[in-house]
Design brief:
Strand order of the largest sheet: 2-3-1-4-5-6
Mean pLDDT: 84
Strand content: 15-25%
Structural class: alpha/beta
Radius of gyration: 16 Å
Helix content: 25-40%
Number of domains: 1
Shape: globular
CATH superfamily: P-loop containing nucleotide triphosphate hydrolases
Order of helices and strands: EHEHEEHHEHEH
CATH architecture: 3-Layer(aba) Sandwich
CATH class: Alpha Beta
Number of helices: 6
Distance between the termini: 15 Å
């Protein structure tokens, strides 16, 4: 039986959460924008053989068990409308990790990071998360240094992605998976 965990993707509407998820799970990118209302739900089985050596678990038996069993992530793409968030608060519960996503071409989505991190901590507790700057293929409104500084303030990693060009999407999920596994209380 695999280790199973719930991962949430949060951020402002239009940041590209659905596109990142579609690229990661199905390998697709859809040009047409469709706003997520409520939440989308997908499952992805992760092959740990590529990342097992990056996991800080010292007990080799546990490492080997995780390697053999794998990890299954239930991925929840939450709608980014703050005024409708009360309907989505349930989706934050029992999460083991999160991607907090903004769009590098949208300063407002970057400014909303504080809100999303605060909401995630309020409803999910202290779980591993990373900040993702999506749409790196578009004209930049938020420079990389500013985004990195914000991630440093939160004490988390920052990764830039382009769901459209399939850049660093797998890396973002790999990084988060390692953090989740390193956080396991076995």
């Amino acid at each position: 039986m695999s280790f199973v965990g719930k991962v949430i993707l949060c951020g402002s509407a239009g940041a590209g959460k659905t596109s990142i998820l579609a690229r990661y799970v199905d390998g697709h990118f859809f040009e047409e924008y469709k706003q997520t209302l409520g939440a989308n739900f997908l499952i992805k089985e992760i092959d740990l053989t590529r990342i097992i050596d990056d996991i800080k678990i010292k007990d080799e038996k546990i490492k080997n068990s995780l390697k053999q069993k794998g990890i299954k992530l239930y991925l929840w793409d939450l709608g980014g409308q703050k005024d409708k968030l009360f309907a989505n608060e349930y989706y934050f519960s029992q999460a083991v990790g999160a991607l907090i996503i903004f769009s590098v071409d949208d300063e407002d989505s970057f400014a909303d990071l504080d809100f999303w991190v605060s909401k995630m901590k309020e409803l999910s507790g202290e779980i591993p998360y990373i900040i993702v700057g999506n749409k790196s293929d578009l004209a930049r409104m938020v420079d990389k240094e500013k985004a990195q500084q914000k991630a440093d303030e939160f004490g988390v990693e920052y990764i830039e992605t382009s769901a459209k060009l399939d850049e660093n999407v797998d890396e973002a999920f790999k990084t988060l998976s390692i953090k989740i596994l390193n956080n396991l209380k076995l």
